[in-house]
Structure formats: structure tokens, C-alpha cells
Amino acid sequence: MTNWGFHIAKSRIIDMDTADLGVYRKVAAKVPSAKLCLMCGACTASCTARNHTPFNLRKNHLLFRHGQFKGLAKEFDKCMLCGKCRLVCPRGVNTRALIYNMRMALDNLNYTRIKK
Amino acid sequence: MKFHPFVIPFIAGVVFLLILIVFRLKQWLKGLDRKQHFFVKQNFLSLKTLYAIVEVFRESLLHFKIYRKNPVLGYMHMSLAFGWFMLIVFGKVKSVLYAGSFFEPMWLSIFFNFFVTSNEPYPYAAVMTFLMDFFLLIVLSGLLIAFVKRIYSRLVGMKKTTKHILIDRIALVALWGIFPLRLFAEASSSALYENGGFLTAGVAQMFSENFASIVELPLWWAYSLSLSIFFFTLPFSRYMHIPAEVVMIFLKKWGVKTNEHHSGFTNIQLHACAKCGICIDACQLDFAASQKNVQSAYFIGDARYNKLTEDVVNNCLMCGRCHEACPVGIELTMIRQQYRNKKEMPGKLYYNYVDLNGYHANVDIIYYAGCMTHLTPGIIISMKKIFQAAGMSYWFMDEEKGVCCGRPLRQQGFVQQAKDLVHKNLRMIHGANAKLLVTSCPICYVSFKEEYALQIPLMHHTEFIESLIDDKKISLESKAITAVYHDPCELGRNAQIYDAPRNVLKHLNLKTSKCEKNNGLCCGSSLSNAVLDLDHQIKVRDNALNVLLEKNPDVLVTACPMCKKAFTHGHKVAVMDIAEVVAKHLNEVKTKKQLSEKPEMITFAK
Amino acid sequence: MTAVDVLVIGGGPAGLESAYSLANNGYDVAVLEKEKNICGHLNQAHSLFPNFQNASEVRSAMIDKMTHPKISIHNDTEAIRIKRDIDKWGVETGSGKEFMAPALLLATGFKSFDPKYKEELGYGIYDNVITTTQFEAMCQKGSIVSPHGQKVKRIAFLNCVGSRDEKVGNHYCSRVCCINAVKQSIEAKKVLPEADIYCFYMDIRMAGQFYEELYRKSQEVYNVNYIRGRISEVSPTIDKRLHVKCEDTLSQTPMKITFDILVLMTGIEASLGTVALGQQLNISGEYNFAKSLSLHMADNYSSHKGLFLAGTCKRPLTLPEAVADARSAAGEIKNYLKTLKQ
């Protein structure tokens, strides 16, 4: 079939009607400060991993918030948890808890030895 | 044979307890890992066993460590443990003297005064009766303190006392019942058979013969039952710490160490916790940030009963204050770390994207600032100034494209990921072939020290600056500035660097605070706690600041970028890193050694 | 002891404007100014947004008004202690003078946030990181130069330094910095037409007459670049310029960019006088700004009878807002003094 170039692929839009928003709600209940993010990008700018790879906490957090989980687990694995992002955040978001909990929510590898 | 049915509950309790302890002991020892087994086997028949016995006597019975921390609490534990122990020992001696044989029925010593009246003389009866009453009195005095402590803990110098679960409460009530019941049972017998000592006979004065004959049997039944309940509940309650602590002491003396992995030794330590609550008072999350039920006493209890939640495991500053305070010497921080550790996925690499250019060869020093230090550029330019003043060439390893040292990941339990980073950094450090690695971040320092197996010496910049001053490579002007030094947790309790910063700061008027050295407070921003939100971090910080600033110093000096940032945001005092203080007060160097040309850059083959 | 009708603490625009308004209504006013000169922060301004009026014009107009016979100006006079008798306010000053009046107006203003608390931005560490006040002084001199003598090719303005920042304890928006950044970037362009100007912002807040137009003009006429992202780290380059890290959040890509000068748009905090007197009078509100009785109904009143508030001692305000607030305070004081006479 000829691709005419104006067809919008399904994955190219964020369909908020079908997106699973409950996962974020659970994470936000654990890390209430996540809701305060105003998307200034300071976290991404100071990120240690960012020096080596296009890792973007702000963007991935937003995608997670909107239920777009595809590829995120792999992205979060890039984080070194060094905590610089937390120090520069003007809104006092606990970015480390945020990424930790997003990572845990996405990963079904049974990371932890604690019974859930 | 001397027998009465009321001894049956007691016998059942003892038998049950012994079987359970043997069973548990077998399980624990089976759970030890290979290295730990090796130590047990190697040192089992050595002088170390003898030391262990001495240690058991000192700590499990006399409780020296608690005594040193808190004499009233020490006396309470000593009177209960040592007093009871002596009651058992002299009870046995007494019944052996009476029976003339070592193999008398075991309940005879426990219920001696019921079975043996004053009409049946035996050697040293008067001395024995006195000793028994004396130790009973000691135990009862300890019990009184314990009772008061439960109601009003401040009286024994504790702000908080542990909240206990149901089985602990049952065991506690049974334990508290044992000695008063014994006193009254013996007193009633004494009223009837005149076989009491100064205490029991004294109490017997209050009993009429008629009354004594009515209450005697019920009292002995109650005594036996309370013993029985205590023995039945002991293995499932916190009182398991009595046997577990003994086992722990032996293993520790034999050289068994706590490592990253959960093992039988962990289980022994979990059971060795008496939930005394001394750690609760030491915990800043408790007294400064009102985080409840996460302190080590609760964490250990939850772990023991398999009901740990992630929040309890993760909500800890890992500052090591509780470990420092624990009278039993349980390695609380390491055990918490074991529970944080995630499953490893063999072969999986996480940081393949890391793109490191290479390293500089032939320099004196590799300088690794650390991620956080990049947010306190004052430390970095001060270090550069110091290197220059000392005439040393250096390669700033993480100036542009650094990789984290791995400790923050490791502390959150991502061990495999951390190892990946260690490997990346090691490749650069060892490639550079320098004489020394200097870091400005205590977190990185501990990481390099414990996880890297470095082939070159390592120094935190406090140690490095101290050595420069000792070698007369730099000197500092004396200043009439009052300063207080804050010990960062990682540099202090974790790396035991206490003297270097104090030696460096001699040129200032250094005042002491209430939280010096191993009593240092956490700034609240500890990377090990990813749970605590900003508001609570601020509470911990402000509490620490208030203690540190009691003497109104001109400047608060610290040696950690995290602490510096946290305290600076407190807006209460000028905060400086030790490197900044040194760089500011450097004596002008007269003959500045010229640095060699820019070191050559070795690029990694792609 | 000097007795007047109204005592004004603070000789900045707000204090002076209300003094003039009250004097015109026939009241004796004494203005206490702790500095050598009146006009407060206006002394540090070169030009004013949105119309680039020369600040010196506004200053001289204000100073002219102060020649009013009913106004006495007391420079170098810091109010230290405030006492209250029945219907009378007494003020003791640092120089030992005493004043008394039935009405007291607090116009103690603001101070700029000290960017040393944001160490990662390099203020006090790198010479070419400066504050908006320092930049204004450069504009005043008409020469924008790098401290290292290099030709200035690129200037960055960073908004929200010390405002909207929970790490330093200031959650609020300082209101004026966005507009000021736009104004200063145009000024920069006027002095250095060849230079590239970048404004880094989290949100651009241009509420108010002519401000949005100013923003538009800066893009259309002056080619100012706006980047939505907060600078999180500054490091030096080998040639002593500044290497700035931020995320261009709109293209979702991290950005590295080198500047000759970084201007920090420092936020507004309660001045030391506002904090000290606010605590003494027990009217300290959020972030130590003075608290008015009712935001909608009695914004110039405090919780004490006869004590009035005007200007930025209450909250961050632009200059026109502060001056308008001062006139409204004068009106309230007039009414109050009338009721006292009855």
C-alpha cells in the first residue's frame, strides 16, 4: 500500500480515552510531589546519564503520566539514581522516589524480595 | 519422689522451648553461606570460643554495653538477666546439696521451697536460702524499673519505648508474673514450713497460717503456669533474643560477617534484637521528622514476622546512628540493605550507552568530583586551586562526561546496575595509571573504598588536604573565625574519617557541638532515603542545624556537597566545604612550581 | 521628639508617593529612610518597563515632590522600635531620634534574593554571572562588557532565580522579573545590536497593560530568543566563558550553550526592615511579607488600628502597582485621621 505521508500512525497520538491512567495515580499516591512538576526540564539538564544518552526524565514522566508506557521500562533503566535532578528541582519533586516507583510499577521482574 | 501435678505445665514449657531452640539453631546454621560456614568450622575449636564465652557473660548477662550508655537501663537488664541466671545456678546448687546427687528431678530446684520444709536439713541451707532471696530481690528491683519504664519511659532516660505486638505483650505479662508469683508462693510456703529467707519469710509475716494454707497451692500453680506461658511464647516473641544473642556472639567471635546477602546470620541477628528501643531515640526520622514505625526496632520486628513493607525498608537515611547506638551490636544498616537488594539478572548490562572518551595518562592525581559536587562549583574551583598550590598535576576525571560511582543505585538495591558502573569507572581509573585518586564526595569515597578493589590509594579531599599540610606542601593562615565542623554520615560513621578534617581546621577557632564524630547528625538529604519528601528533609535539616549552631559559629564547615547544599538552603549560617575554607586561607606560595604540560589524552578504542 | 500627622517608614516610591498625597491634603508627614538617598530601588534602575522611560526622570519628579513644605525627609534614619500609645504611634530610630504620629505607614519594601544560595548557577564563583541589578548598572553606563574583557557575543537571562523555588523556600512568583527580563534583553540589544540574546523561562508571565506587546516587540524587532527550560548548571569554559546546561523542553532535547554573560533575574523577598518590623508588630505573613487585613476589602490596613501598609512590603508588585497602592493607602489614612478628629 502506498504511504502518502499524511496518515497518522496509531502510536503517534496520545489517546487519552484509552490510555491506562491508573498506574500513574498509584505512583502519585506514593510520591505526591510528582504532581507538582511544572516541566521546567532542570532535571533533564543536570542528569548524569544525559551526558551519554538522550535520557529525559521530564518527558518520560509526562509520557508515564499519560499512560504511554511503551519503551519506558528500558528508558528508566538508564537512570543512575545519582539524585542530581532532585537537588535542582524547583518544585521539590522527589524525583528519585518518582523514578524508583515508576520503574517498579513497570517492571514485573519481581525486583524485590519483599512480599507485595 | 517429690512431685506435684503443678510442675507439669513447667516441664511441658521447658521441653517445648528446648526442642524449638534446637530446631531454630539448626535452621539458622544451615542458612549460613559458604564463607560464613568456613569461619564457623575453622574457629569452632579455638581460643575465640573462650572469648565468646566471656563476651556472653559480659553482654548477655551483665549487659555492660547498655550500662555504659544508660546506667539505669543497664541495671534493669543486668538485674533481670544476671539475677535470674544466678537464681537458676544457686537453685541447682541448692537442690544438688539437698538431694546429694546431680541428677535430681529438674523441677526440684524451681519449686524447692514447696517440696523441702525446714524439717529436712541439708548443707549450707542458711547461706543458700539467703542467696536465693537476695537474687530474687535483685530481679524484683529490675522488674520494678521495667514496669516504670513501660509506663513512663523518661524516668529511665528514654524518650520512647517500643510499641509491642500481641505475642510480645503476652510473654511480657508472663515474665512480669513469674517473680512476684514466686515471691508470694515461697512466702506462703514459708508461712507454713518456716523455710524462707529474709525476703520470703519477711513477706510471710503478713500471711496467717490459715490464709497461707488456702493460697499456697494456687500460687505455686500460678507460678508454674506463668513460667510455662513464658517458655511457650518465648520462641515467637522478642524474648527469643536471649538465645539468639548468645548464638550471635559466638558467630561474631568466630569471624562471621554480615554481607550484602540475606543469610542465616541475618535471621540470627533479626532474632537477637530485644526491641529495647534505644535505636528509636537515636533516629532522626523519629525525633525530627515524626516518621513512625520505620525505626530499626520496628524494621527488624517486621522482617522477623515477614510483614515488611517497601516503605519501611526504604524510609531510612542509612545514617548509621542506630547501628552506633545498638547495645547488641546488630548490623542494622547492612541488614536493611539486604532487604533493599533486588534480584540480579545474570548477563544483563544496563549502561552500554555510556560513552567515555578515554583518560589522561601520567598525572599525579585523578580527581573525581562526584555528581553532586557539580552542583557546588565552589568546591571544584577550590580543589583546582589547592592542586595548583601544591604543584600537583591532576586529571579531572568526571569534568564533562562522568559516570556515577554506583553507590546511590546500590543503596536502593540495584546491585547489578551498580556493578556495571563500577566496571566503567575502574577502566578509566586504572588506565590513567596515577598515584592517587582524590574525591570530593563522601558517598563516592565509600563506594570506591568498599566496592572498587582499587589498585591505587584513595583519599577523600579532607585526608588529601591534611597530607598536603603535613608534607608542608601548603600552609594556612590562622584566622579568628569561629567554626563548627559537621561530620557527614558517609565520611564519619561509614568511613571513620574524624580526625583529618579537625586537623585541617586547626587554623580556625574550632568549636565543638553536641553532635561530634560518631554522634553526628544527618543533614536530611541522604541519598539512601528515596522516600522522604522535601518537607520532612527540611525538618531533619533544621533540627540538625539548631544543634550545630548552638554556639553561634561564624561558619559551618562540612565535607560533603549534599550536606553543604542542604544546610545552605537552611538560610541560617554561612556554610562552607572544607576545601573552600582551605582555598580561601591558603598562604601565598612563593615559588609556584610550574605544572608540566597538559597531560596526554589516551582515547579508548571504539 | 518630632510630632507629625503621619509617619512613613521607607522612602521608596511607595512611601514617597503616599507622603506627597497626604501632604497635598494638608497633613504633616515625616518620611524615615534608612539609606542616604530616597527613592529606594529606583536608584538602581536605568529605564522602566514597559515604555523605557528613563528612571532618572521619575526619580527627579519624586524628589521635586518632596520639597512640599508639609513633608520632612529624614535620611540615614532607620526605624528600630515601634511603640504604641492610645491613638499614637511612636518610633525610635537608630540615630536616637524619636517620632510620634497618630498614623503610621509601613512602606519598607523588598530586597533582591541573594543568588549565592543557588550555588549551581555560579554567582560569586564566576565573574560573568551577574544579577539583574548589576546588569541594569551596565545599561546605565551604556557599556555591556564581560569582566574578562572579551567581546560580548551572547547574553543569557535566567528567570525565576529565588522565585518559584521550593529549595530556597520561596514558592511564590515575584511578578516583575519576566517583564524586566524582556525589558533588559531589549536594552542589551540596543547597546549590542550584534549580540545574541536568550531568555530562559519556566513560564513567561506578562499580565498587565503593554507587557505582552513588549514581549512581542522583543521577538519581532529585537530577535530575542526564548527557551522554555530552567538552567540547572553552569560551568566555566577554558576561555572563561560560561557553559550552560538546560533542557529545551519544547523540543524535548537537552541543550548546551555558551555565554559571555549570564544575568540572573533575582526574585523579590521581604526586605530586612519588613521582616524585622513585621515580626515586632506581629503582622508577618507568608514568606515574612507584611500581612494586610483583607486582600479584597482592606488591603492597606493592618491588624492594628492606625498602622497602614503600602507597596512591596506586602507582596511583589511592579512599580506602577506599588505607586497606585501608595495613593490608595494615603486615601485610607486621610479617612482614618478624619474619624479621629470627630
Largest sheet of chain A: none
Largest interface: A-B, 29 and 44 residues
The tally of beta strands of chain A, per DSSP, is 0
Distance between the termini of chain A: 49 Å
The amount of helix of chain A comes to 25-40%
**Which architecture of the largest domain in chain C would the CATH scheme give at its second level?**
3-Layer(bba) Sandwich
- Counted by DSSP, the helix tally of chain C is 7
Question: How many domain modules of chain C?
Answer: 2
Number of strands of chain C: 21
The major β-sheet of chain C equals:
5 strands, parallel
Shape of chain A: globular
Number of domains of chain A: 1
Mean of residue pLDDT values of chain C = 95
What does this entry show, briefly?
The complex is a heterotrimer of chains A (116), B (606) and C (342). Chain B is mainly α. Helix content of chain B is 55%, strand content 6%.
Can you tag this structure with a few keywords?
heterotrimer; A: 116 residues; mainly alpha; 6 helices; C: 342 residues; alpha/beta; FAD/NAD(P)-binding domain; five-stranded parallel β-sheet; 7 helices; 21 strands; elongated
Report on the architecture of this protein.
The complex is a heterotrimer of chains A (about 120), B (about 600) and C (about 350). With about 120 residues, chain A is mainly alpha-helical. Chain A has one domain (about 20-105). Chain A contains 6 helices and no strands. Chain A has helices at about 20-30, 40-45, 55-65, 70-75, 85-90, 95-105. In chain A, helix 1 crosses helix 6. Chain A is globular, with a radius of gyration of 16 Å. Chain B folds into 4 domains: about 5-240, no CATH class; about 245-340, Alpha-helical ferredoxin (Fumarate Reductase Iron-sulfur Protein, Chain B, domain 2, Orthogonal Bundle), CATH 1.10.1060; about 360-470 and about 590-605, Rossmann fold (3-Layer(aba) Sandwich), CATH 3.40.50.1860; about 480-585, Rossmann fold. Helix content of chain B is about 55%, strand content about 5%. Chain B contains 29 helices and 10 strands. In chain B, the strands form 3 sheets. Chain B has a 4-stranded parallel β-sheet with strand order 3-2-4-5. A 4-stranded parallel β-sheet of chain B has the order 7-6-8-9. The termini of chain B are far apart. Chain C is of the alpha/beta class. Chain C contains 7 helices and 21 strands. Chain C has a 5-stranded parallel β-sheet, with helices on one face. Chain C has a 5-stranded parallel β-sheet with strand order 12-19-13-14-15. In chain C, strands 1-9-8-7 form a 4-stranded mixed β-sheet. The longest helix of chain C has 23 residues, at about 320-340. The chains are: A mainly alpha (about 120), B mainly alpha (about 600), C alpha/beta (about 350). The interface of B and C includes residues 375, 378 and 381 of B.
